[in-house]
Input
Amino acid sequence: MEITMRSLWTLIHGMGFGALYLLACSGALVELYRFTISAAPAEPTPGQERFLKGYMFAMVVLAWAAVLTGAYVIYPWYRAAAPPGTADLSMFPQRLLMSSPTTIDWHSLGMEWKEHVAWFAPISITMAAFVVIKYGRDLKHHRQLRTAVLSFTLVSFLAAGIAGFFGAMINKYAPVQGGHTLQLSHGEEK
Amino acid sequence: MNTSETAVSPSTSILPNGSGVAAILAAGIGSFVLAVLAFAGDKSVAVKSSLVFYKPTGALSGVTTTAILVWLFTWGILEWRWGKKTIAAGRVIAVAFVLLGLSLLLTFPPVVDLF
Output
């Protein structure tokens, strides 16, 4: 069993940071929704408050890690230009997708949307985390802030979901591959 | 924008909402700047070229770096102006929502292609 370095980075970006962020975001949405719809939210214990603040901070780290690895590690491999006359485009995912009318929209719609919409996730969740961390239990006095934090967190979730969906599909049709090969295990012949 | 100094009684410790409102509006502005730059880069080769800060990533590097700098700068200014005040939050948050909605629209390729 082996994996290439580029595939490993894609895995870290998508499954490590992106998918974990989506999971964390769904949990945060439930908690923020419960907190927001209540006219008089229950007072959290200091432990619960600390946990929520740490949870939001972890989400900020995951969101920024996902977009930064995506834009500065994987995207350059994705958009690499193929030398003129290259017949095998498997090492040039963008060119591979654009070479066929059955796959071109995975780039022109999927990647073109994903590469920009993904950034709304860290911007929105950074704001949400700042408000939660700054106000803590005092947030129960600010219904409008709670509603805004919930809404921006929802947009963050949607943006990350769009980016994650297209990332997975693009990597299915034109995987980012190459680089050093890492041997994970040596199988035995049957 | 209507603002007033915080009226906090000694018996309560309610934080003024200005800091939160500043963060919300700044997030809306930052998102909108990102969307406008992405849109402009798609429509103009000159703009696209000027946004290439890091060649391997192309114009995306300039779009996102500029938007993040504008976002953080705006946030800093708003925090400085509103951080210790209570703000009439409804209208400001509504503006932030509109900016965020427009940002989502402006980054959706079929909408971009309409122009």
User: Anything to note?
Assistant: Chain B has one domain: 26-109. Residues 19 and 103 of chain B are 23 Å apart (CA to CA). Confidence is low (pLDDT under 50) at residues 1-11 of chain B.
